[in-house]
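ingest -> validate -> predict -> emit
validate: passed (alphabet ok, no gaps, 425 aa)
predict: started
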Amino acid sequence: MTLILSSQDQAMLYGHFGDATKMAMRILTTMANVYGATKLLDIESAHIDGCLYHGQSGLDFAERLVAGGAQVRVPTTLNVGAIDLMHPEQFQGSADLASRASRLMAAYQQMGCAPIWTCAPYQTMHRPTFGTQIAWAESNAIVFANSVLGARTNRYGDFIDICAALTGRAPAVGLHLPQNRRGQVVFYLDSIPKKLLHEDVFFPVLGYYIGANSQNQIPVLVGLPPETTEDQLKALGAAAASSGAVALFHAVGITPEARTLAEALHHQPPTAERTVTMAEVRATLGKLATVADGRIQVVALGSPHFSLHEFEKLLPLIEQHPPHPNVDFIVCTNRLALGAMQQRGWLAQLHAAGVRVIVDTCVVVTPIVRQHGVLMTNSGKFAHYSPGNIGLEVVFGSLEECVRSAAQGTVWRDESLWINKESGD
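emit:
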């Protein structure tokens, strides 16, 4: 198949809009040919993951774009960087790494990207509307935009994300096209206790299970309560994108492309169906820990970044069970949430209790944690990446379990959470 370019695409490719745009279009068209696209489409926004420092090549690429006069053509937000620019003293790495990471973040700002530095842009300044074509990077942002908002994006990564932003174009393939958004494998939740279906802690576990059992297909969930919250869907999608390649899920009666099961399946039969059992849920729960319950040194929350509503749940728990001085208690969030907490007096309360609130970055992508040992989290994403990324063992629990464990320095459990009282299991 041949990629057909518009006259403006060709002008960008031939350098009529500057060297940076020329390079971006050259990369974009190369990737479009790899994908088998026959045309490019207009996008209305972008979210960039390339601002996170992974090595010199990423910095060289960004600074070359800046030198070529790069300016984004659509509203563009930035994912986490490697430095909390508002609190640089929180960084535990070398001065050289801090310098390079800061230069990279500055380069993307120079290109006109909005410096929100969050993995959850959909809960800050930009929420694409239903059907909007976008080019987003960062796995949880992608799955949330596609699933919960009904926007249209493929899984974009470093370099290709900023190329889409600089040209305002993306290859017309994959999840950009309606026919490729059909649900395929159906997961029924009939066997899950109704009480558990409303617990926040259930959603990362369910997401982790869904991601591991979708085999690169689009999952459809049947049986989530209509009142399932945005933060719960956020946690589900983030975990599913961590354990598998999920970029879109449908929740019948909840997400916008799944008013009915038939609609989610595009009125076609599913490729597979399975009923999620409590035994499978408990087995998945076990996979989110690398060590047995015992002493902990760190509690980390906020992957994806904590919302203001999540802080509202955290604050009374912290007041009742303040962290032990020997436990490093960290919450990652975005700048807008930080500002709102400052206005409400919540930030001062958290700091007084010994909680570190981090913005612009994330525990598992840069040196922030001050202790080694065992990290406890309520995030399926933190649980998945912490051992490999920062070398800490992990245990997983609910928000209350994390807070109460931090208070005593050892894991505390609510034994009633995972018991199926309806069946006596």
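The two ends are 56 Å apart (CA to CA).
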